[in-house]
Amino acid sequence: MQHPEGVVALAKRLDADLVVIGPEQPLADGLADQLKAAGRAVMGPTAACACLETSKAFAKEFMAAHGIPTARFHVCRSTAEAVAAIDEFGIPVVVKADGLAAGKGVVVAMTRHEAVEAVEAAMELHRFGRAGDVLVVEECLVGVEASFFALCDGEHAVYLGSAQDHKRVFDHDRGPNTGGMGAFSPSPLIDDAMRERVMREIVQPVVDGMRAAGDPYTGVLFVGLMLTASGPKVIEFNVRFGDPETQVVLPLLRGDLGELLLRTATGRLGGHVVERTGGAAVAVVLASGGYPGTFKRGHLISGMAEADALPGVHVIHAGTTRTSSGDVLTDGGRVLAVVAEATDVAAAIGQAYNGVSCLDFEGMHYRHDIGRRALER
Questions:
Q1: CATH of 144-265, one of 3.90.550.10, 3.40.640.10, 3.40.50.720, 3.30.470.20
Q2: pTM for the whole thing?
């Protein structure tokens, strides 16, 4: 974000009661710090707290210092260090760029050649710019992934919801990783006992650790979990609402979302319980041809009104643009998300794909098995 002072000036001019920061880059740039200094209630952590997402090395070292369960790791500042770490952990192994890399800085290498190639791409070819100058090499955890959301007001934390997403681009988890091809909520893996364990072993230690460091964490904490045989372990943190998981978590909340976020921003979560509907939601992402690789923009999208008219269905724009005549065109890799809410996952899956069937643009592709993991459980 080039002009955070413009956002601060706008908040002052509007006399905003609450500012909710969405993307990670403004948080990394310190927008929350500037807004708080200007006396605004902010739903978003300071730049120091945002390092939980913006620096993989910081996050891993923070977890190690506070006893938060995660994979064994080494922070590497040279190719030689990284290759030595690869040989220590063995294959498969995970190679992560330290900084923000638009969701493309993580490689789960299945061969030593692939792992070394990932190191060289980051550190020698500078594929991720400065973000790849430092790497985290870590053991590959075995288990099932789930996403866990909590709201934190600097001292207290409350559970918001859970989800599971589908990262691979093709059905049956084939093909390269993406920013997410779809998600469902709630995750059947997060029962009451697991929820309490994650809050106790992961979320509250983050809040306590940041407060002890003099930087109270205020905002949403999005925990990417691996549920292993020995318990939940952190894969990564996001310090914001991320998609497509948020698109299936928020529809299932009862009550006033604005009031809930204001409570978070103003330190009033103590004793508060977030109520949910008891239903389920599913999101199916429609992507441009070629995504997550190269793709073309500017294709006309048809069927939006028909999809939005379906009961329990709404379409969320991700990579679109509108012409002066009102036509909607593709303008990104992940173009749309079709979200459906229903009484259970099976019904939500059916409604979401009914919405998908209404939509079309040249090169459109999507996964046909979103939510199937929940049915298999």
A1: 3.30.470.20
A2: 0.92
